[in-house]
Amino acid sequence: MAITPQALFADPALFLYELDDSFAIFQPMTRQDIARSIFLDGRIRHGNRKSFRVPIPQLAEAYRQVAPQRRPLGWIFHVAQCGSTLLARALDHPGRSLVLREPAALRRLGVAAGGEGDLPAQSRELLPVVRDLLGKRWEEDRPAIVKATVPVNFIAHDLMAMEPDAPAVILHFPLANYVAAIMRTPGHVDWTERVFGELRLGQTALCQELPTEDPAQKAAALWFCQMKRFETLIDAFPNVRSLDAARLFDDPIPVIDTAARLFGVEMEPGEVEAIAASELFHSYSKNPALDYDPDVRIAREAEAMARLAPEIDSARKWVAAAANREGLPEALGKPLVGDPVSLLG
Asked: Is pTM, for the whole model, over 0.85?
């Protein structure tokens, strides 16, 4: 069938999957496909439906012609390895809400902006197009939420400025827990170095002044730059809330309940408690085939923090030097639940 410009901006089954230098790639999806897709990147589950490409200039022109009404969106911003997938899945209920987990096209724009958050001209033009394409949903009167990725944190202010009253949760770790989480295995260290490189953080003014030669220093730079971005978001937008990851892991019921209220996700009586007691919280959220309960998490974190004590110390020294130059809040404000948690522990 012919796909019209109006359909591109109205039909949620025409999902914007990815961008390259010349094309926007759309992947036909069902609501069930979205629910089955833990992530909407290379791990997307699309039922072998064939994607199609739209030249970026043609997409931009269609956006101008259609001028779609902006639909509200909620946001989950996070630092990685901190339970964001768990929270996102707890809030995703077909018929009542829609949660898009790590859409690749949005990440592409975050990478283009880099650590300075400076979008090139074409990417800046595309940002509202991508944002509004992600706002499509099967039930127009139900909330939609985007769980972003680390590069998106560097364009989060631009995204929030399009809808300043939008609800958002910033999920984060104190520094020591963060280093333990993203340097826990060689694969995690590779991820840290890759994202540091993708964002070109080594070219930022701060990282030109301070050494970022080893993985611990790169982890420190990633954490510090994200905390500064988050501090700005919390100050600028009224419905942004911070959330220390330990609160989600240790006491999920008030976190899920308060997050659902913030985003407007309707829950049945007793449903939050059932979710917290379900298999979701006793398996690995990124791979439900793996068992993963609170005792496993606590033991793994303690082992990693002990083993990585030298790296954590190196990261603390880097952050102390960075804070002397640019400042750092004691804690992120406006917590979703409980009291603010010290960023440095």
From this structure: yes
